[in-house]
């Protein structure tokens, strides 16, 4: 070990002095301090403490004592050193140990308002106490004195986000990523500030930087998914959705899917001025992957049917067959749970999917006249089953409370559908 050679006596002093100035050998205490620093990184804190104590490196001694949980001993050493000679650094360390802001104030005054460390530590104390307004000026004074503190810029940005100072937060995170471009959390938080400032295109670009640095973080991907949707970057929405499914088993976001499928079906222009309908094959691939993992979501099956039946390909017999199949699965998922008629949201969902399925049956019966009776009979049977469940629920509600207007409206809609289907079925049978 290099430190052992300082006490080596085998080589005569006259020989060692010959190349003394050429070697530029550092002093022994500096070499041993480097060794102690390495020991701390390796977790051998007790051995490092012995070296620091031997060379009276009190700041490092106090740090080691704190790491070992010997806070009282650390405070004693600090106070002993303060009795010998007061320094802003020692007052700051005492503040770190006792969590008392008066010691940071003493360090600030003793330094002649030039200690970035004092203001930084005071800011961290306020931040830990969630006093965000109070920590802002502390961090600002610290970076005014020393603007190369990326961690302080980051904390200032976080405090700005929490306190609603969005412009300050964005400025702070920009400074942070300027000093530390590999900080993915700063990029992610910068995008959050831009989102709140309604600057979504800038948020989208900063999230791309965050993902470049941390490709495995599903939370960043979820933010990217939402921002891409808001910006009309529909191709990136597909990429983000696939990635989230890689990272999280059975991931699905119905709201995002509704926006994406709606944009593709309606041919909405994306951020580049291109119609989103060009993404239909990729969207079908995504939905196919989703339903292979999430088989019990009525909304997903309904959206799958909506997308499959859109465009010129949607009018083909094969596509209509798929649409009917998907809507049957959506209806089955919506009614699989017993007691759905007692819950308002479930009731509305069942009515919606029933109407969609009956419309698909009717349309399919027109495409395949030879199967019209079978298809229309299936539609009629489904309608009668749902209507009977709703009527029973309505009767029970009438006995206990006032009639439910939403339930009555749903019943009325389905009864109209039943009348249309029954009439059509009779016409087909009489042909």
Mean pLDDT: 87
Distance between the first and last residues' Cα: 103 Å
Number of strands: 0
Q: The biggest beta sheet, please?
A: none
Low-confidence stretches: none
Taking Cα atoms only, what radius of gyration do you get, to the nearest Å? 35 Å
The portion of residues forming beta strands comes to under 5%
| Helix and strand element order | HHHHHHHHHHHHHHHHHHHHHHH
Shape: elongated
Question: Which percent range fits the helix content?
Answer: over 70%
Q: Tally the helices: what do you get? A: 23
Structure characterization notes:
The chain has helices spanning 13-18, 20-23, 28-42, 45-54, 58-67, 71-84, 88-98, 101-110, 116-128, 132-145, 150-163, 166-179, 184-196, 200-213, 218-231, 234-247, 254-266, 280-293, 298-308, 317-335, 344-367, 372-400, 405-429. The chain starts with 12 loop residues before the first helix and ends with a helix. It has 431 residues and is mainly α. It contains 23 helices and no strands. The mean pLDDT is 87.
Q: Secondary-structure blueprint of this entry?
A:
Blueprint lengths: L12 H6 L1 H4 L4 H15 L2 H10 L3 H10 L3 H14 L3 H11 L2 H10 L5 H13 L3 H14 L4 H14 L2 H14 L4 H13 L3 H14 L4 H14 L2 H14 L6 H13 L13 H14 L4 H11 L8 H19 L8 H24 L4 H29 L4 H25 L2
Helix pairs in contact: 3-4, 4-5, 5-6, 6-7, 7-8, 8-9, 9-10, 10-11, 11-12, 11-13, 12-13, 13-14, 14-15, 15-16, 16-18, 17-19, 18-19, 19-20, 20-21, 21-22, 21-23, 22-23
What are the defining features of this structure?
mainly alpha; single chain; 431 residues; 23 helices; elongated; 75% helix
């Amino acid at each position: 070990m290099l430190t052992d050679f300082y006490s080596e006596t085998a080589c005569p002093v006259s020989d060692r002095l010959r190349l003394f100035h050429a070697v530029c050998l550092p002093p022994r205490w500096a070499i041993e301090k480097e060794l102690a620093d390495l020991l701390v990184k390796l977790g051998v804190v007790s051995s490092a403490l012995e070296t620091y104590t031997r060379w009276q490196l009190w700041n490092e001694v106090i740090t080691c004592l704190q790491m070992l949980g010997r806070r009282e001993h650390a405070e004693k050493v600090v106070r002993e050193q303060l009795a010998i000679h007061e320094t802003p650094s020692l007052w700051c360390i005492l503040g770190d140990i006792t969590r008392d802001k008066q010691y940071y104030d003493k360090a600030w005054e003793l330094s002649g308002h030039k200690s970035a460390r004092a203001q930084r530590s005071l800011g961290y104390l306020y931040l830990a106490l969630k006093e965000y307004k109070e920590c802002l000026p502390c961090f600002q004074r610290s970076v005014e004195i020393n603007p190369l503190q990326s961690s302080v810029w980051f904390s200032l940005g976080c405090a700005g986000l929490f306190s609603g100072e969005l412009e300050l937060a964005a400025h702070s995170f920009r400074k942070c990523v300027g000093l530390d471009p590999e900080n993915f959390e700063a990029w992610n938080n910068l995008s959050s500030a831009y989102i709140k400032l309604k600057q979504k295109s800038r948020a989208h670009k900063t999230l791309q930087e965050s993902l470049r640095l941390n490709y495995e973080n599903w939370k960043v991907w979820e933010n990217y998914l939402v921002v891409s949707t808001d910006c009309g970057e529909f191709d990136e929405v597909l990429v983000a959705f696939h990635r989230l499914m890689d990272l999280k088993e059975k991931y699905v976001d119905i709201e995002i899917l509704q926006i994406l499928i709606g944009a593709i079906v309606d041919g909405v222009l994306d951020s580049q001025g291109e119609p989103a309908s060009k993404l239909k094959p990729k969207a079908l691939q995504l939905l196919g992957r989703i339903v292979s993992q999430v088989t019990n979501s009525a909304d997903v099956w309904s959206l799958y049917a909506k997308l499959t039946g859109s465009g010129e390909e949607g009018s083909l017999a094969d596509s209509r067959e798929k649409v009917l199949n998907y809507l049957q699965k959506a209806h089955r998922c919506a009614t699989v749970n017993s007691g759905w008629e007692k819950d308002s949201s479930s009731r509305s969902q069942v009515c919606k999917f029933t109407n969609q399925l009956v419309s698909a049956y009717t349309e399919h019966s027109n495409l395949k006249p030879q199967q019209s009776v079978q298809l229309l009979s299936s539609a009629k049977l489904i309608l009668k089953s749902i209507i009977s469940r709703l009527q029973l629920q309505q009767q029970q509600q009438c006995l206990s409370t006032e009639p439910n207007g939403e339930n009555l409206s749903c019943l009325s809609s389905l009864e109209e559908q039943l009348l249309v289907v029954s009439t059509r079925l009779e016409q087909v049978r009489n042909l």
